[in-house]
Write a structure and sequence with these properties.
With about 130 residues, the protein is an alpha+beta fold. It has a single domain, classed as Immunoglobulin-like, CATH 2.60.40. Helix content is about 15%, strand content about 45%. The protein is built from two helices and nine strands. The strands form two sheets. Strands 4, 5, 7, 8 and 9 form a five-stranded antiparallel sheet that branches. Strands 1, 2, 3 and 6 form a four-stranded antiparallel sheet that branches. A hairpin with a 4-residue loop joins strand 7 and strand 8. The longest helix has 17 residues. The two termini are about 20 Å apart. Keywords: Signal. This is Bacteriocin (Lactococcin_972). It comes from Saccharomonospora xinjiangensis XJ-54.
């Protein structure tokens, strides 16, 4: 949640200071997005909704369509807690990648809304939807 608020503030501030009214966002191919494919997207970071298998919660983040290297590609899978800091169930990262995936894994907690948050140090961040899991 924090990443979305910070990104929205940065976009608004940038639009106000530069006078830019139309902002462009990386386009993701819908069919590739559903399958977790980063090869068909414009350069950016994508976080997919977490999945559950055998009591393990997995959140995937991908970076694709890029030609430059990022130092870190992070992924966190979190439980959405109202009016309280969200709990991190698992996190993982990869270093010095151009286009790659990283999966964050953690144990299932109580049935609640869970989501994946991902970002790259070179820029770009995303947060998945918040479906009920576990």
């Amino acid at each position: 949640m924090r990443v979305k608020k910070l990104m929205a503030s940065a976009v608004v501030a940038g639009a106000l200071t530069t006078g830019v009214g139309a902002l462009s966002v990386p386009a993701f191919a819908e069919s590739a997005q559903a399958q977790g494919d980063v090869s068909t997207m414009a350069c950016g970071v994508r976080a997919w909704e977490p999945t559950v298998s055998g009591g393990t919660l997995t959140g995937r983040t991908g970076r694709g369509g890029c030609t430059t290297r990022t130092t870190y590609l992070w992924s966190q899978v979190k439980r959405d807690i109202n009016n309280w800091p969200d709990r991190v169930h698992g996190e993982n990262y990869r270093t010095y990648v151009v286009n790659a995936y990283v999966d964050a894994r953690g144990g299932c907690g109580p049935a609640a809304r869970h989501y994946t948050e991902g970002w790259a140090t070179s820029g770009g961040a995303d947060e998945s939807g918040h479906p009920w899991r576990c």
